[in-house]
Amino acid sequence: MRIGFVGLGRMGSGMAARLVAAGHQLVVFNRTRGKAASLAARGAAIAEAPAEAARGVDALVTMLSDDAAVEEALFGGDGAARTLPRGAVHVSSSTISPELSARMAERHAAAGQRYVAAPVLGRPGIAERGELVVLAAGAPDALEASRPILDAIGKQVRVVGVEPPKANVVKLAANFVMAVTLEALGEAYALVESGGVDDATFLDVLNGAVLQSPFVEAYGKRIAGNAFAPAGFRLALGAKDVRLALQAAERAAVPMPLGSVLLYRFVAAIAGGHADEDWAAVGRVSTARRGTIV
Amino acid sequence: MRIGFVGLGRMGSGMAARLVAAGHQLVVFNRTRGKAASLAARGAAIAEAPAEAARGVDALVTMLSDDAAVEEALFGGDGAARTLPRGAVHVSSSTISPELSARMAERHAAAGQRYVAAPVLGRPGIAERGELVVLAAGAPDALEASRPILDAIGKQVRVVGVEPPKANVVKLAANFVMAVTLEALGEAYALVESGGVDDATFLDVLNGAVLQSPFVEAYGKRIAGNAFAPAGFRLALGAKDVRLALQAAERAAVPMPLGSVLLYRFVAAIAGGHADEDWAAVGRVSTARRGTIV
Amino acid sequence: MRIGFVGLGRMGSGMAARLVAAGHQLVVFNRTRGKAASLAARGAAIAEAPAEAARGVDALVTMLSDDAAVEEALFGGDGAARTLPRGAVHVSSSTISPELSARMAERHAAAGQRYVAAPVLGRPGIAERGELVVLAAGAPDALEASRPILDAIGKQVRVVGVEPPKANVVKLAANFVMAVTLEALGEAYALVESGGVDDATFLDVLNGAVLQSPFVEAYGKRIAGNAFAPAGFRLALGAKDVRLALQAAERAAVPMPLGSVLLYRFVAAIAGGHADEDWAAVGRVSTARRGTIV
Amino acid sequence: MRIGFVGLGRMGSGMAARLVAAGHQLVVFNRTRGKAASLAARGAAIAEAPAEAARGVDALVTMLSDDAAVEEALFGGDGAARTLPRGAVHVSSSTISPELSARMAERHAAAGQRYVAAPVLGRPGIAERGELVVLAAGAPDALEASRPILDAIGKQVRVVGVEPPKANVVKLAANFVMAVTLEALGEAYALVESGGVDDATFLDVLNGAVLQSPFVEAYGKRIAGNAFAPAGFRLALGAKDVRLALQAAERAAVPMPLGSVLLYRFVAAIAGGHADEDWAAVGRVSTARRGTIV
How far apart are CA D216 and CA C216, in angstroms? Predict the structure, then answer.
């Protein structure tokens, strides 16, 4: 397939590399040019603007940092929406609001374009290996058309519905539960430490005997070891996702008491200078003892 | 061994039955007499007071509902502490405050008695099968002396330290993380439902692709199915454990922001009439849509 | 002065009437036409679009419900920004984000127009009497030019700075403290009621002996009497203001723990069907006894 | 009257001095002896134990720091309850749980003694001037009997009911609203500061134009000036009162969402080393900028 790819951040560059490796013909665009070089070396063409990346393609993939970036890339001055051919499919993998996803679905439909929301679970290293979990939602024909892309970037493709925003809300809710878990581990560690028990002993009981989750195991060790740099997923991005979850909830009049406090914890962590650390740091910041982390 | 057993609630009666089955000689006491009948039928003697249950035994096991009940059974008018022989070991399996545990350790030591804190993870059905996880802390000789008991009630015995309160704080912290998870699942469900996604689809993604925890799987299904009666673990008891965790934290000047809100959610659930349902109900109550649960 | 006035909601129509009464020449615009009729009867001209209301005026006053409405009225298709004369002053009285206020300041400056942020404290009846408290911020010359307007709508004009967003942040912070107070009163009432003390007795002690605030007196009685309709200030608008405060705080990495929970309470109140009641209802919803309000 | 007085802390010594000044005959007891010296110099007798202070008196006044201290002084080894004459009245001014107040009411009644709950609002300097606000609850005859005492210590005596715990719950609820206000002021200051507005300007608007409360004025200035030492009311005691409010609420299944977060803020403040500062410090700690207070 001929594929336009917009957004070559840490996740996007791994995903684009997988598409090249799968034999697709890529035209890539990134605001910061340097990031496109290694893809160009593997045969990808470099576009000067989103509009150029979308011209004449079978599919457009976007992997950007937030709603504003996606809106600009699609509908801004040199946006991709105006050049994407009729019938082509836009695969939107960014973590964005369900609301923007719904608006894109409408505008693409009005332009005769197709649209699939396909946010992903996983981190940069996993993206490079093509082993992301893809949460996909869209019309059956659009999903069908984007299959080769989804299969190239993901080890699992989970279709969660026909309406694209469903994939976005599932992504936000999953990140919310993960973020709560990080903060809860941090608070639990602080509690057991106050009783003279070390984190590892507690984690061993909690996960060994109760939760038995590889996620808890990995992050539990990371928090126990205060190993927050380099970040697998930046705390500031985690804050953004929690905020998106709360905004979607508020729009639907869904109260989220834990979620509300959780966002405050992320803000406090950012205020404490931890924005660029791994999001697992939120668990330490909230209950840090003097002299250690805050 | 000759064992006194005080507290034949849903957990205690299962544990006591395991001890009888393992060949120990039991003298049991329960405030409400009726509950001792089935154990008596299997050969246990029935005591009229805690003091009687503790007289002449090698070990005393207590499994009561809260600090007050334990204090009364041990140090009240007809309490077990005054009759427990020197050298005998008190195995305290109740979920109580680390503070009371520390006080009992002192008083038993002063009386030449031994003391092991051995709170357990698991529910009544699991207690009946002798498959609890036992969190034990105590002096090596006391742990040694109580081994036959711990092995009879647990499939795993995890020693978390020499000072008894360590086992209690680990128990509280583990229950705290579990309780947070229940509430977080409920809030996440409410969020995805507002986007038209059903709970099962979300759980499938969350646990299938991310957490991979049998705990999340079981409780996630329970909450999705609004299956809160009969209770595996009563919500009112869950509230008590969260409160104990917060009190222990406060005593040590450990702030627990999520924990603080979590306790409020349990209180709200109790205010809503859910005290006797399974503690998983907390996740529904907090974010219930009109007409459903609150 | 010749004044364009955009936004004739409950607050705006009272303010516009004061300006007419003070002898100014008004051109008014409101999306819903009917609301302009009574002003037309008093001599105001009716415009077909914001752009028309701003053409040739000395000053433009906007009093709209939120950021989106202000952006549309100023910079939308038929927006006022394009017709407002050079040198004319835009007096923005809506409760909006400091961020939008900063953007308007820039754009007006670039167009040679002047800009004053002048959000107000008070309710519709007070607006009709011209007794609002005006929080004004802007360059001295712009403030000077808008004085006749500010004096006509307010009994007090408090200048809080030269940079316009300062007035907006002060407005949001003041509303935040007021909203916290409403919720706190509700929780305190629930507590004393649980002890058999009626709300009025408690309010008498709290305000009579401690706070001595007319605000607490008035709202305290309103909450005690469950008198939430008709709304003086709609709960949904109160929620908006708390959200704006939190967003401004988050943007500046300022953690607001009480504020975070407060927003959740407003969302819960809206979920409970109280969006159109007075914002004082938030205090009841949060802790309502079964069968009463939630 | 012949009055036993137990508890000569900062509040108690001021109150006792007023009673001496009013011509009553005092027998005082304090665990730390030194504090009784200045009262002895004014003619008060010094007791060796609470039991001695209560022997043969017309009334007993207790002003102690918490439930445990009151229980010990009344019902401990050398407690006052056993010597207080039949018909004498115990005036309990400590800030304690409604639950303990109810228990004391019962025990005094059973012993033929009378009991009035009379917690006070005000700080040490105010106690010295006899200008406290007394919240009194008790049977009419008991209130009548304690009138000379209440009038000597208070400028206002507000009777809130016949059942003593009512006075205690009103005291806790009033302190809760005050504490919320302190935290809310701190968060609001942090918000306006982030927008470049100084605290004093904001306070001037908030209190001058809206709340008009002397309480807000005084504490607002204190927080603006970071003037937390010496403490008028120690933060650790404020934390205790918020905890008591939450415990009373929980016991009655009254959810207090703001209250829950508020207690966490006090714990965080204590964790930050502010236990001995004025409770107004809670407002700074929660949202302190780096390098200032936390």
Answer: 12
Query: What residue spans of B129-234 are helical by DSSP H?
Result: 140-153, 165-194, 199-205, 214-224
Angle at D215 between CA D212 and CA D217, to 5 degrees: 60
Could C187 and D176 be called an inter-chain contact, meaning their C-beta atoms sit closer than 8 Å?
yes
Interface ipTM: 0.96
How does DSSP classify residue A288? P
The first and second tokens of residue A10, run together, are 């840490």
With CA atoms as reference, report the closest residue to A277 among A218, A232, A243, A220: A232
Indicate if C171 belongs to the active site: yes
Distances from the Cα of A144 to the Cαs of A59, A85, A120, A133, B73, in angstroms?
Answer: 12, 17, 18, 17, 68
Strand ranges in chain B using DSSP code E only, listed in sequence order: 2-6, 25-29, 45-46, 59-62, 89-92, 114-117, 120-121, 132-138, 154-161
| Residue D276 near residue D234 (C-beta atoms within 8 A) | yes
Task: Quote the tokens at residue B274.
Answer: 């859910």
Structure tokens at D199: 């605290």
The b-or-e profile of A252-290 (16+ CB within 10 A means b, else e) is bbbbbbbbbbbbbbbbbbbbbebbebbbbbbbbbbbbee
Closest Cβ–Cβ partner in B177, B253, B264 for A184? B177
A133:B209 CB<8 A: yes
* CB-based contact C265:C282 (threshold 8 Å): yes
Chains with ≥3 CB–CB distances under 8 Å to B? A, C, D
B35, B166, B171, B240: which one is catalytic?
A: B171
Q: Enumerate residues 62 to 91 of chain B having a beta carbon within 8 A of any beta carbon in chain D.
A: none
Binning pLDDT at 50, 70 and 90, where does residue A285 land? confident
Q: Distances in Å between the alpha carbon of A79 and those of B190, C75, D161, D229?
A: 35, 21, 71, 59
CA dihedral C196, C200, C203, C208 (to 10 degrees): -120
Find chain C residues with C-beta within 8 A of A253's C-beta: 267, 270-271
Mean pLDDT over each residue of chain A, to the nearest integer = 95
For residue B287, give the 3-state DSSP assignment.
Answer: coil
Q: Do B264 and D255 touch (CB under 8 A)?
A: yes
Contact C272/B257, CB-based, under 8 Å?
no
Q: Establish whether the linkage from the previous residue to D230 is cis, with ω within 30° of 0.
A: yes
Amino acid identity of residue A214, one-letter, is: P
Using CA atoms, how far apart are residues C210 and D214, in angstroms rounded to an integer? Answer: 8
Neighbouring C-beta atoms of residue A41, cutoff 10 Å = 8
Q: Which residues on B lie below 8 Å from A290 (Cβ)?
A: none
Tens digits of residue pLDDT in A149-205: 999 999 999 999 999 999 999 999 999 999 999 999 999 999 999 999 999 999 999
For A81-109, give the DSSP string: GGTSPTT-EEEE-S---HHHHHHHHHHHH
Are the C-beta atoms of residues C152 and C24 closer than 8 Å to each other?
A: yes
Q: What pLDDT, in 10s, does the model give residues B238-263?
A: 999 999 999 999 999 999 999 999 99
Which A-chain residues 186-245 have CB contacts (< 8 A) with chain C? Answer: 243
Using CA atoms, how far apart are residues D102 and D96, in angstroms rounded to an integer? 11
Assess contact for C94 and C64: CB atoms under 8 A. Answer: yes
DSSP code for C84: S
User: What are B41-93's pLDDT values in tens digits?
Assistant: 999 999 999 999 999 999 999 999 999 999 999 999 999 999 999 999 999 99
Indicate which of C258, C261, C267 best probes the interface with B, i.e. most B CBs within 10 Å of its own CB.
C261
Q: Does C122 touch chain B (CB under 8 A)?
A: no
Q: What is the largest CA-CA distance in chain C?
A: 65
Residue A19, H or E segment: helix A10-21
Task: Kindly state the helix (H) or strand (E) to which residue C25 belongs, with its residue range.
Answer: strand C25-29
